[in-house]
Specification:
mainly alpha
Length: 85
């Protein structure tokens, strides 16, 4: 689990959104000792990359509503990343 300070920062930054709540739950499951090489910052970077790929896929397929939803998630993830760095 991420430390209490990190969780509080995430709750303040993105806790009012559904995707923000997902990020907070993910942070609570994060490896506190970084034994497996990923901390919450790494996880957020990975999320942003995956979401950006899906955004592009949806845009290419002409699914603008889905692409916009992915872009919204990217914005939330970037806000969370800024809060924990």
């Amino acid at each position: 689990m991420a430390d209490t300070k990190t969780i509080e920062a995430l709750e303040k930054a993105v806790g009012d959104t559904a995707y923000g709540q997902y990020i907070i739950q993910d942070a609570k499951k994060a490896d506190p000792d970084e034994k497996y090489g990923q901390n919450i910052v790494d996880r957020l970077h990975e999320m942003i990359g995956v979401l950006a790929a899906y955004e592009r896929i949806h845009k290419d397929a002409g699914e603008d509503a889905k692409a916009t939803a992915e872009a919204d998630k990217i914005a939330i993830a970037k806000k969370a990343l800024a809060a924990v760095q």
